[in-house]
Amino acid sequence: MTGIALRHEEKLQPPPGHPLLGFRSAISPHVAELEGHILGWAERYAVLDNARARDKLARTRLGELVARAYPTILPARLEAVAGWFTWAFVIDDCYEHDAGHYDEPAAQTLRVLVRDLKPDATHTRLDALLADVWHRLAAGMSTAWRLRFTQHMAHFLAAFKYEAFNRQVRHVPDLLGYQQLRRASGGITPSLDLLEVATEQEVPGLLHEFEQARVMFNRASDVVVWVNDIVSLRKELAAGETTNGVLVLAEKHHVELPEAIDLAYALVTRQIEEFEQATSELETLMSRWRGLEPENVDAVRTFTDGLRSWMRGNLDWSGNSDRYQNADGVLLSTDSSLISPSTPSLSEPH
């Protein structure tokens, strides 16, 4: 494997003129409210390790990510969407600690969604948080949306197992396999589903499955996770992470990390080009699709704008968030009992 040294002065942002910088940068005016909701959810369900973890969550500026990814989010949807991101970032850190249990905890979490469990019917505090959030998110959404979101959550939960295996054996996956795993492991697919919750404009189930819409969805997902791999590189190198796209490209092309970063941004350029091509094709298709109601067209266009906001908002937030700027090793939670009640707690919540 090629060397993995990365000098501090090396740039992790896209080069001037990159198409990602051509997307409009926007942010919701509700940033402070979102930050308050995120800390509120974490405290209500006691899912953080201690005061240091709470400080880490505050410095992560997760509310800013939500505000940038969903700049037109409705006030009535702020608390629910903030709650899902609190859950997602905590569970991600729990599994980064290598909890060692994957299949049954994943099935247990999915039962929260499938059975519409109430918080007091769940097994862990983290599942209770998700149950509370789920009832708020799913309110008013169709069965088709609920099934799609649940499927994407299943992919997200399953990916933790494979990432942990890669860490344990110090394996850098090949590019083909990595592209499939990363889209799931980043939690971006359910995050994009929340675009419809945030605006209360749901894309009809059939349209969402059009080939062009699927390409748009997948390419936007890929842009977010590949950019995340670049901007989080220092943090992940410090943590011993091996499931990172920059490392995958370095291994595949036998280059050092600066060249691999350039290759990653070139890949993002191609992903954006494919996104825009699919967007154009979908507009043409909708103009010729008989019986399509104006509100459905508006929902698709709002969703498309949201995909662009996610791609650009993720980049803008990454430059401000302590999660990537400070590789201090502090996790939001290392408490295995948040994932599986059969495992001992490694730390007491405060």
From TrEMBL:
Q: EC annotation?
A: 4.2.3.-
Q: What are the alphabetically sorted keywords of the record?
A: Lyase, Magnesium, Metal-binding
Cofactor(s) listed: Mg(2+)
Q: What class of enzyme is it?
A: lyase
Could you tell me one molecular function GO term of this UniProt entry? Answer: metal ion binding
Q: Please verify whether the record's keywords include Zinc-finger.
A: no
Q: To which protein family does this belong?
A: Belongs to the terpene synthase family.
What is the designated name of this protein?
Terpene synthase
Q: Which organism is it from?
A: Amycolatopsis panacis
